[in-house]
Amino acid sequence: MTTQLRRNDLVYPELSYKIVGCAYELFNQIGHGHLEKVYQKGFAAMLRTENISFQQELYHPIKIGNEVIGKLYLDFLVENKIIVELKKDGRFSKQNIEQVNQYLKASGLKLALLINFTSTGVVVKRLLNII
User: Fold this and answer.
1) In 3D, which of 26, 49, 42, 34 has the Cα closest to residue 76?
2) How far is CA 120 from CA 9, 27, 38, 42, in A?
3) Contact between residue 88 and residue 39 where contact means Cβ atoms under 8 Å apart
4) E strands, the chain, in order
5) 17 phi and psi angles, rounded to 5 deg
6) Is the dihedral of CA 118, 123, 125, 126 positive or negative?
7) FRET label pair with 33: which of 41, 56, 67, 131, CA 20 to 30 Å apart?
8) φ, ψ (nearest 5 deg) of residue 27
9) Strand, helix or coil at 105?
10) Does domain 13-128 sit in CATH 3.90.920.20?
11) Residue 125 contacts by C-beta under 8 Å, 6 or more apart in sequence?
């Protein structure tokens, strides 16, 4: 008898799986070495193909009271649940991780996926908002 283990501690596991699948399919179709904007347009096309709702380059103000003191632009907000930030570097920099953590804190959302298109493939980092 085979027992299948299922983790109950993952945030949005099914949606995350679909999002990551879109990134892999994009990489399989176009490969590496493109500008970040090309990956963004291609990723949007993949999400549309999979009928996954999203907003792109979503403006999010940083406020103190009613005063806007800064602004953020999320690459993608998928199904109003998961922030997706795309990069095309060889590795995740501390700055990339801090940027996405700032998005999580400012938005109050639970999960972000930092997706990097590298010369060897797609690398994904899940970042949780510890509220």
Assistant:
1) 42
2) 30, 10, 17, 18
3) yes
4) 54-64, 67-78, 82-87, 111-118, 121-128
5) -60, -45
6) positive
7) 56
8) -60, -40
9) helix
10) no
11) 92, 97, 113, 114, 116
Summarize pLDDT for 2-51 with one digit per residue, the tens. Answer: 445 455 567 899 999 999 999 999 999 999 999 999 999 999 999 999 99
| 109 DSSP 8-state letter | -
- In the DSSP assignment, the letter for residue 119 is T
Buried b (16+ CB within 10 A) or exposed e, 17-43: ebbbebbebbbeeeeeebeeeebbebb
For 17, the token pair is 């799986």
Neighbouring CB atoms inside 10 A of 98's CB total 10
Q: What residue ranges do the domains of the chain occupy? A: 13-128
Render pLDDT for 72-119 as a digit per residue (tens, 0 to 9).
899 999 999 999 999 997 788 899 999 999 999 988 999 999 999 999
